[in-house]
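Forwarding these from the shared drive since the link keeps breaking.
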Amino acid sequence: MLTDTVKALLLGLVQGLTEFLPVSSSGHLALAAHYLGITDSQLGLTLWLHGATLLAVVWVYRAELWRMARGDRALILLVLAGFLPTAVIGLLVRPYVHEAFESTAVVGTCFLVTAAALALGEWTLARCTSPRPQMSLRTAFLVGLAQSLALLPGISRSGITIAAALLLGTARPVAAYYSFLVAIPVIGGAFVFELPQFYAHSTAALRPLPLAVGFLAAFLSGFWALRWLLRLVPARSLLPFAVYCALVGTATLAAVLLGS
């Protein structure tokens, strides 16, 4: 049987590596919780891990955040245009999506949706003769609407936002840059919103060592994954991630049908 510290290490690595890669951290955490036997009282750890990946993206985008703090109005409006629709939809539907995290069938299906979105985005980009080198407010708003789908486990936030931007004719480097920038208020808002739940769990079951190990694992792996992806996406296709999500979704649904 795995100890709480080992579970925290594994969940930290899963969270860090999958938060920014277009493969859905929520879906992987839901599957990890299912197959590692994570109890409800231990799920507060996943909220803590989101704080670690938030710190990682804040550090990578510290220059952009400093520009916004100094009053870069254009950048602020772009971030708000992508964040606000996600926040509004999230507040409205979040009470109804909790059960999705307990259904491996839903998780598997959502992985297939992520795979299809990534493939469609790449297909559209390949046929676009002049992708736009800038993000407009309209595109940012539509990307924010698509981002709300990531409330479901298995729908990758980074994958769905990059795919949506590509579908709307945005150049690949701009799509990736904006996807991770708008992640800051989204991850931060969700973390703050769920803090009461974290404290309720932490007082009941979480000890300092697993929290520290999980946080460090999520921060370091998240920082590495984000830096690597920012170098990869501008020059490489996302189709390998689409194939990966399709395989995970298919395997998950097969396991459900076989009763495992």
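-- next protein --
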Amino acid sequence: MGILEILGIAGSLSLLAGWRLYLTILATGIAMHFGWLPLPEHLKALQILASPWVLGVAAVGTLAEFLADKIAWVDSAWDTIHSIIRPLGGALLALALVDASDPTWQVVAFLLGGGGALLSHGAKATTRAVVNVSPEPFSNVAVSSSEDIATGGLLALAIAYPPLAIVIAIVMLVAAVVVIIALRRLLRNIKSTLKRAMGDGETPTADV
């Protein structure tokens, strides 16, 4: 793989880790185990992801995340717990994909990987907080299932077609920024509406 393909995969994996860290590790490990993701010589250390122990822990984490993410407010609690874990996992995944002989690129990969994972995690967590306000339970399951399908599909594309990985990373990055901006505006509007409603509902006291 060339440097652009490596950076593309690193960016894709770190951004997807912000959504589904355990699924990202599990899918990447399986791809390495079966040789679907060929690695250059300097990335052979990543083969640890194909270890049965790592795959087992990632599988348990994937199942736990799959279930927790379908329950309103449990998903937000799960996201809160993973506010550090996901960015750190994304940073380490990106770091592992960069040549260890180049410290500069390692620092850049670590920072960008962690930042990308934090950004996508922020978009996910904010989206789920907004969805949880909905009075019906089905939107939560629908959004969560969509995230599962999108993560699996994008991982498959990035692994099967490394040249597409850089495109996937750019699209995900732009989408995360747009979602965060849109949701922040929505939350501000909701907050303003609630304040006005509370103000209008106040009962004036009569002067004696």
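The mean pLDDT is 82. The two ends are 83 Å apart (CA to CA).

- D.
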